[in-house]
Amino acid sequence: MVHVYNCHPFASQQIVQVEQEPGLVCCGGGALFVVATGGCKVEAYNVEQEGCPFICRFATMGTVKSIQHSKMGDYLVTIEEKNSATYLRAYTNWRHQAEGKARVGVRLLGHLLRGASVRGGVQMEIIEIPLSKRPVAVACCPVTGDLLVGCEDTLVLFALRRQNQQSLNQSQQILQSTSQNSSQNQAQSPSPNQNFLDFERSVILHLPKIEPKQVALCGGYVAVQMELEVLVLKLDASSDPKTQEESSDTKKTDHIDDQADFMVLPRHQELLGDVAKDCDIPVSIENTGLEDGKGQYTLSYVLFRRFTPDFFQGCSVEETQLHSLQLYPLYTSNQSVPLEEPACVFCFFSLPNAGYLYSLKGGVELLSTYQYPEKVLKAVLTDHLLHVITKSALQCFTVRCAAVAARIVDPYIDTTMKACPPCSMEVCALRIQLFIGLRSVCVDGSHVILLSVADTETPEEPERTPQRRRLKLKEHTLLTGIFLAVGIDPATTPALESFLSRPFLGRKWTISSPKETSPAGHGWNLYVVDSVSPLTLYQEMVEYSERYAETNPQAQSLRHLLSEAHLFLRASLLRTEPSEQPRNIEGEAAETLQTDTDAPAERQTAAQTDRQEVEEALRHNCAQLGDCFSRGSQKDCHLALPYYRMSGLSVTEVMARNRPLPSSPHTYGPGFLFYLKHFLFEETEQTLSQEAADDVIDIFSQSEPSQLVSVCASPSMINLSPAKTLQILIHQEDTCGVSVLLTITMATMMLCLDDLPQYTQLMERHAEMLLVYRFIEEPRLLLHGGVGGRHTHIRPTRLTRQLAKSQPGLLVAAMVALHENSKVQLEQADHIFKELGCENCLQVDFWEAMLMASSQEAVIQELLFRLVSIYIDRLTNTTSDTHLNEPHTPSRRRPLKSADDLINSCSHYGALYPWLTVLNPAHTTSSQHQEALYKLQSLLCGPSLSVGSVVPLMERLSEETLWGFSLHLLCSTRRGQYDRSIEKLLDRCPQAIIAYANHQLQDTHMILWWQKLLPELCNRTRAASDNSILLAALKETLVVVAMEMSPTDFLELIPDDGTASYFLPYLLTCSQRHLMA
Fold it and tell me: pTM here?
C-alpha cells in the first residue's frame, strides 16, 4: 500500500536557455550537461546559480549516444558513434574550457601527454579508451571514480588513477627542454600538487549468457541489468591466487542443462545473498595483471532478480522492461569506517509499473516496493526521495535509506533509549507536479533536471511504430470482419469508423504521429526544479498532520506521516557535509572555479545553525511520535518510551501532554503508562515535585491500582503527599483485601506522618518472614538507587532507618535475602549500614548472617576475612577489665547472634577445642571482648577459614595475655606446627598440655606422644622435680604411651638415668596389655 500526501517537495523551477533541442542530459558537480539531438557538442550550465548560466561548450569526436558524469575526478565519459564505429571516451579538465582555453589534448588510455599539458599547465583532455567489443552501457563509481563499461557479453572495470605533476616531471625530466625554455616553463608550470587523471584496465567479467542493457558501479558492487533480470556482484581484492572461474562455470552450465527441457518462459525469481549464486548466469573473472598490488579479484554473488513478462495498464508485454538501475551510496557524518567507504549501499531498479529498493551492506534486504499509478519512464534515487517521471508528471516517493543508515550508525536504535521508524514501513507518495512530454530526469543535490518534449514519440517508440501499425491494421481488419458478418458496414457509419480506428490490444492510448515544431516556438523545455530542504518539507508535513490530529489523534495515517517526517530529519542529520565526503580527486581545481564566495567560517556557522534547527525539529517530532504511541494500540505502545526520551521532555511535560481526552476522561493510553512505569521503576535520579507525584498516584489509582505499591516505592516519588496516598491505599485495601506489600506501604506512609503507634501496629500484622519475602519482591521499600548493582550510589529509605532502630533483626534478615536474590551487592549493603551508622554492630550481624546463608565460596572467604578483622579490632580496642554493667552505646549494642548461637547454627563456626577452656579467662573480661574472643576462636576451630590468610592480622595480637596466646597457639596448631605448639604450651600453661594432646595428638599425630611430648616432660621434670603440674602431665603421658606401644619399645623410651621403680608400673601395664592382645 502506498500512502499519498499532498505535500510540496519542490520549491521552484527554472528553464535552462538552450538553443538547440537537447538529446541527452546528465548532471553532476553542480553542472548540467546537454548534448543536442544528433549533435557532437556538449554544453555545460551552472545549476547552482540563478538562471543556470552558461559555463562552457566543447566538441566531441563523434555523435554522443550516452553520457555520464563522475563526481570523483569531475570527468565526463561518453559512448560515441562515428563512421559506423562505436567509441568510449573520457573528457577531463572540461571546466578549463570556461576560461577560454581552446587547447584540447587527445590521447590513448595510459599515455600521458608530454607536451602542452605538462609545459603549459592543465588543459582539457580527451582520453580514448580502446575496447575489443562494442560498448553498450557505462557507469561511474560515486565512491572511487572507477569506470565500468558494459559490452555485449563482458563487463570491463577501469580503475581511476591520478598522476601528480611533480612525479610526472621527474619521469619526463630527460625529455624536457633545458636552459632556453626553463624560465618560460617555470612561469607556466602548474602547482606541483596538480593531478592528471588516467584510467587503468583492472578486471574483466565475462557474462556469456546475457547482453547488458544498463550497468552500475559503487564501492566494489557491480550491477548489470538485462531486459527482465538484474544481477548484483561484489568484487573484492584478495591475495589468494585461486579464483572461482571453473567452479562457477561448471555448476552454472550443469544447472542450465538440467532445466533446458522445462523452461519455456523465464520464471520469476529472487535470490538474496549467497543464494544468488544459484542463478543461471555464469560469471568468470579475467584479471588483467594491473591490480596495483591488490592481488587478484574474487567474485561473490549478492542479488539476483528475474521478472516474467506481464501486461500493465497501457503497457504491452513486449514493453515491460527494466530501467533506472542505480547503486546509491550513503555516507554518514559519524560513521566509524573510513570515509572512502560508504556506510550503506542501496540498489534500485524499476519496471514500468513498480520499483524495487534493496539494501546491500550488512545483509541483502528488500526495503521497499513502489507501486506506480501509471507507466513510469525513469526513476532516480536520492538519500531522502525517489523521483520518478511519467509521460506527463514528476512524482516523488519516500525512501527508507535513512532508516537503514540510522541503525548502522547508532547501536542504541530499537532499544528503550532510542527508536526509528522501521525499514519495512510502507512508503508514501508526495504531490504530483504536472509537465508535458517528459523524457528524462536526473538529480544533482537538491536540483532535479527534467527534459520535456511535447507531441513527439518517446525514444523507444520509433523502433516499434511499424509493429504497432501492423497490430493496429490487424485489429481493424478483425473487427471490421465481425461487423460485416452481422450485416453492418462500418464504412457507412462515421462513429463506427472512428471507433475502429482506435488501438485496443497493443496500447490503451492513441499514438499520435510526429508533428513539426511550430514556427512560433520549439516543443521542448529543459527544467531545473529545486527541491525544498528536508526541514521545510518536515514543517509542511507537521502542518498536514494537524488535520489528522484534530479528527482522529490515534489514526494510523497520522503516525505514518510523522514517521515519514522523522526519516526526512534523520536523513538530513546523517548526511555528511560535502567537505567531509570524498568528492573528486581534483577538488582543488573544481573549488577554485566555483562562484560561491562565502567565507568558510560563515558557511560552517550556517551549517551548524541549520543542524541545530534540524535537531530541534527532530526533538519536536519525537515528542509527537511519543504522543501517537502513548495513546496507540498495545502492540506498539512500548515505542512511546524511546521517542519521549529522544524528545528531551521531562516526565512532568509528558504527563501534561497525556491528559485524558474529553471523550474518555478517565483513560490513559497504554504507551503513556508504559513510559511512566519505566521512568518510575528504572531507578532514575529525577525527583518529582509533590504536585507531580500526587498526579502520578492519581493516574495509577485510576488505571492500574495493582501498581500503587511499586509506584510509592519509587525514589522519584519521595515528595508525594503521605496523607493523600494513605487514603488511596486504605481504599485499595478495602477494595482488594489485605496484602503484605500494601501493609508495608501503608506503614511507610504512617512513618512519614510520624505516627509511630500506627506504624508499629501495621508492621506487627504479619510475621517477619512474610515481610522478608515481600521485601524481596519490592526491594525499593528499603533501598533507593543501585538495586541490582546498576548504580554505585545507593541510600537507605526512611523505613530502613526505622527498622535499624526498632527491628534490627528484620532489617538484617531482609538484607541477607536481598543479597541472596541478587537484589543488592555486598559492597552496597555495607554502604547502607555505614549510612545508618551501624557499621560496627548491624553490619557485623549482617556478615555473620550472610555467612550462615551464603553458598558462594568467594563470598564466604571474603566474609571470613572481614569477620576475623573485625573480631581482632574488637579485641584490641576493648580492655579486658571492662565490666558488664557499662552502659551500651550504639556501637556496643549486643549482637544479634552470640558465639554459642553461631556455633550451633553455622557450620563455618567450629566448637571450641576443650583445651581452650583452660586458656580462656573466666568472667574477667567484658562481654563484648569475650564474645569477640569466642567467635574468633570458633572461626579458627572451624573448617572453612584459611589460617594462612589471617596470619598477618594475628600479628596485631600480643601473646602476653593468655587469650592472645591461645589465638596464636590455635594458628600454629592449624598450620601443623605441633612440636612448636607443645613447647610453647609447656612454657606458658603446662596444665593444658594433656587436654591439648588428647585433642590434637590423635591418629597420624599420635606418634608425637612419645617422640615429642614424653621427652619434653622428662627433661622438664628432671630440671624441676617438685613441679606437680609437670609430674601429673608425665604420669598421664606414660599411661597413654603404655597403652599404645609394645614392651620392648617402651623400655627404649625409659631414660638411662630414670628410676626403675617409677616406670615399672607403666611397663607392667604395657606388658599385660600386650599379652592380652
Answer: 0.78
